[in-house]
Amino acid sequence: MLLTDKKPLNAHFSFQGFNCLIDMSFDNILTVLEVLNDQDLLNSEKAQLILYLLTGDEVFEADDFLLNDDNVEFAEGFIREFFKTFMESEQMEQAVPKDIMGNPLPREEKEKSFDFSYDAGYIYASFMQAYQMDLYEQHGKLHWEVFLALFNSLPADTMIMHVIDIRTRDIPTGKGYEEQARALREAKSKYALPEYLVESGGE
């Protein structure tokens, strides 16, 4: 991210002759990530919903859209290219470990330390504490990359950074560390991510 870059909320995107504007507001991208993690949706349902969220094009709302094999291939390619173009960066290395069809992206797996949806309350409070920024008031205004830059710069004393530290900290071993180990195990249990999120990949 360069300070000289202009990041429009609606970014131009073209795939296989289909031209559109992608809604890059942070709340929309977070909704896309929520859809990716939704255990109750089929991959085809996720693909169709994500296409609509990103483009707002009503053509993707048709009930029979993904009944056509060509449309399925288009949806897979569109979403894969979108993540490659807009989301594959150092900051997103752990946030989107798989593409929409469940295929692992070519990146090293890491222990999951946070989830944008599950930890939304901690993140909201941390932005208020660090930046006096109400994220609800930023819906449709704050660009995803700006949100990520702010998130990755949150100070250690904010709640989400405290929770991430607990989740990733090694439990001490050896004589004299029994009490610290017990306390950290309790904290890890308190702030643990749900198992289905841990299994879905690292953040």
Describe this entry's structure for a reader.
The protein has helices at residues 26-37, 43-55, 69-87, 120-131, 144-152, 159-168, 178-191, 195-200; strands at residues 10-15, 18-23. It has 203 residues and is mostly helical. A hairpin with a 2-residue loop joins strand 1 and strand 2. Helix 1 runs antiparallel to helix 2, helix 2 crosses helix 3 and helix 4 (120-131) crosses helix 6. It starts with 9 loop residues before the first strand and ends with a helix. Residues 90-109 have low confidence and may be disordered.
Provide a short characterization of the protein structure.
This protein has 203 residues and is mainly α. The chain has helices at 26-37, 43-55, 69-87, 120-131, 144-152, 159-168, 178-191, 195-200, and strands at 10-15, 18-23.
Query: Per DSSP, what share of the residues sits in E-state strands of 2 or more residues?
Result: 5-15%
Q: Numbering strands along the chain, what is their spatial order in the largest sheet?
A: 1-2
Helix content: 40-55%
Number of helices: 8
Give the overall shape. globular
Order of helices and strands: EEHHHHHHHH
**What value does the average pLDDT take?**
84
Could you say which structural class the secondary elements and strand pairing correspond to? mainly alpha
Largest sheet: 2 strands, antiparallel
Global Rg: 19 Å
| Count of β-strands | 2
Unreliable segments of 5+ consecutive residues: 90-109
Distance between the termini: 20 Å
